[in-house]
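User: I'm putting together notes for a lab meeting next week and I want to include a structural view of one of the chains we've been expressing. I don't have a solved structure, so I'd like a prediction I can at least talk through. The sequence is below, exactly as it appears in our construct file.
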Amino acid sequence: MSALTPQSDMPTPTTDKITQAAMETIYLCKFRVSMDGEWLCLRELDDISLTPDPEPTHEDPNYLMANERMNLMNMAKLSIKGLIESALNLGRTLDSDYAPLQQFFVVMEHCLKHGLKGKKTFLGQNKSFWGPLELVEKLVPEAAEITASVKDLPGLKTPVGRGRAWLRLALMQKKLSEYMKALINRKDLLSEFYEPNALMMEEEGAIIAGLLVGLNVIDANFCMKGEDLDSQVGVIDFSMYLKDGNSTKGSEGDGQITAILDQKNYVEELNRHLSATVNNLQAKVDALEKSNTKLTEEVSVTENHLTFWPFGIGHSKEEMERVKEESSYILESNRKVTKDRTADGHALTEARKQLKEETQLRLDVEKELEVQIGMRQEMELAMKMLEKDVCEKQDALVALRQQLDDLRALKHELSFKLQSSDMGVKQKSELNSRLEEKTNQMAATIKQLEQSEKDLVKQAKTLSSAANKLIQKHH
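Assistant: Thanks for the context. Below is the predicted structure for the 475-residue chain, given as structure tokens.
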């Protein structure tokens, strides 16, 4: 990989030179981070055109922010997964010098800084993620203890240092996921510190908060009194993730296969040792057979001498006794050689039997090794399918949460409308009752008017009859 080439203010070269330079240079200023199993993939986002015809570049701020959120989420997945696997393999309490743990805090710091609003001061703009973290103690009372501890640490002089110390104490408490979820759920409070399209304001923040639950299985212990958290430079080390995934996959399966290979090597070494022992025993047997043959020949010669000596020139009795003793000694030696040969034969038989058993054990170990390799491949395939299923379920969970939020909003709206309609019905019923009362009152008034009208008609008739009578009297 060639060295990273920074952009300079030199005059623009020709199209051929631009194309050649782009072929030889990897640009990381605008890249997309994605995961392919255990691999970290960096894909260029049209930093420079490789063809003479200019192509449109992605200058939309929303697109760039979405790309940054995706990059940070993928980096968080890799960092959390690598930290959990390495910590479980290590099998001890982690401290501040552990490299995967340092990279995890660097990634978390970048996630918390994404889309952070800057506060203007007399020295310029100041962007610190300590402000949002201080809100956690208002949402979760248990966080008040670590916030007070951070404020009491004497060596911390900057908000960045206090934020880093807060993250470490929350991880020690195994409450980091709980605190982040409580913070992300309050978008109304976070809007004071973050832009609308920041990672903490979008669904990537909720996904990262869910991934942090896995860190509850590890134990960490930090001594922050002598650690300089204010001046640390938070740079992501991509070299920890740009490596072959086979070195980190299936660590438990690798341990089993390594043990089986060690056992196989031991059996082979034992087999070679037994083969050498068998060869040595075979050589001893051959030597004993030759010695036995020579002794048998000497015994036969001695017996011949003993047979013919009494009829010969006449030897003394002492000579005869000496010859008999030598003959008995030779016979005893012959018996011992025969016994040794029988014992060596038994040892050879036992060695051959043990060699056969070790050979059978070696074949069984090789078969078991093949079975373990097949099981490991199946486990890797199952892990890939499980990761894919988890991603799909996470996407489905995010969609369901969105639908649930929509349903809650619709329910709230309907309940508001229902309350409004209930109030309208009550008002109408009250108005109807009032109208009925007025109607009844008007009906009673009409009856009274009709009665008075009848009375007036009667009075008019009476007056008219009286007037007629008076008129008749005058005539």
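A couple of points you could mention at the meeting. The mean pLDDT is 76. The chain has twelve helices and four strands.

User: Perfect, that's what I needed.
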